[in-house]
Amino acid sequence: MLRLLGLTGTVLAFLLVLGQPAARAVPKRDIVLPKKGPPQVDLMFVLDITGSMDFAIKSVEQEIQTLVDQLRTSKLDVQVGLTVFRDEIMRTPDDAKAGINDDPWCFKFRSGRAYTTDGTELKNIVSLLKANGGGDGPENSFEGLRLGADQIGRPGAIKVQVLITDAEPKPWPRYEENLAKTQAHLLTKKVQELLIVCTPQHREIYQKLWGKEGAFELKGEWQNIQALQPMKTGMFRTMLASLETRIYAKIADNEKKEAAGK
User: Fold this and answer.
1) pLDDT band for position 46 (50/70/90)?
2) Ramachandran category for residue 195: left, alpha or beta (phi over 0 → left; psi -120 to 50 → alpha)
3) 219: which DSSP letter?
C-alpha cells in the first residue's frame, strides 16, 4: 500500500482523478503552466503502522526515489508529509529510533516543517518505521487524518490526504460521532481531496468522510488495499498524469468563469 507513498505525486494523481465525476479532460498538449508557475500540492500520507501493515511500509521505502524522480518532471509543485497511527499509546524501541512520541504522530523534517521535497530525508524516516502493535482491531485512523490536516502547508496549495489502513476506525462499532467530527475538521482545514486505500468491507465507512460545507467540497476515491501488492509497473506514472490533467482542467474552467464574469 505504501507503495502508494512512493508515488506521492503520482498517488495524488490517482486520488484526484478516480471516482468522482472527472473534470472535463484537458488534452496534454493544451496543458500550459500558469504564469505564476506550477500548481502547488501539499500531499499528506496518513499511514497505519500496526502489525499487519509491514508490506505497506516496505513498499513506501522502496518507491520513495521513484516518487521524487517523477515529481521533478511533473507539472505540479508537490511536497509530501507523513502521519502515522496505531490505536493506543504504545512506545517501542523502534518508535524511539524513528522519533515517534505519540499516537497519532506527524513527522517534522530538517526544515522544522511537516512537508518535504527531499526524497532521501523521507526515505530515511520510513526506513525506521516498524509495523507492530495494534491491540484490538479498530485503529486511530480518524485521529490521524485530523492531525495530518492540522499541519501547516503553503498558502493556496491544493491540500490532499491519502489514508492507508486495513482496519476500521475507533470507536467501533459506534464510530459515527467521530466520523462527523473528522469530516467537519477536514472541511474546516480545507482538505480538497482524500484518497482512501482500505479493505472492501470498510469502504463505505471511510467514504462517508467526503462531503460539502457551503461551496467547499471534499472529494476523493477509494482503492482496494489488497490490490496494492504488488502494484503494476507504470501505475504511478499514470496516476501523476491523471492528476495533472484534473488540476489543469479545474484551472481552465476557473479561467473561463473569470473571463465570463468580466
Assistant:
1) very high
2) beta
3) E
Please state the pTM of the whole predicted model: 0.80
Residue 219 has a CB neighbour count (10 Å cut-off) of 17
Just give the CATH number of 3-21+36-261: 3.40.50.410
In angstroms, the CA 200 to CA 188 distance is: 28
- Give Cα 113 to chain centroid, integer Å: 17
Q: Quickly count: other Cβ atoms within 10 Å of residue 257's Cβ.
A: 9
Number of residues in the chain? 262
Q: What does the alpha-carbon distance between residue 79 and residue 197 come to, in Å, rounded to a whole number?
A: 20
3-class secondary structure for 50-101?
A: CHHHHHHHHHHHHHHHHHHHHHHCCCCEEEEEEEEECCCCCCCHHHHHHCCC
Angle at 83 between CA 79 and CA 86, to 5 degrees: 160
What are 260's three cell numbers?
465570463
The per-residue pLDDT for range 139-191, each reduced to its tens digit, is 999 999 999 999 999 998 989 898 989 999 999 999 999 999 999 999 999 99
Number of C-alpha atoms within 13 angstroms, CB side, residue 99?
11
Among all chains, which residue has been given the C-alpha cell 473561463?
256
User: Which of 57, 68, 47 lies closest to 117, judged by CA?
Assistant: 68
CA angle 149, 154, 159 (to 5 degrees): 40
Structural domain spans, the chain? 3-21+36-261
Which of 46, 1, 19, 23 minimizes the C-alpha distance to 191? 46
Q: Which residues contact 93 (CB under 8 A, 6 or more apart)?
A: none
Which of 262, 258, 210 minimizes the C-alpha distance to 34? 258
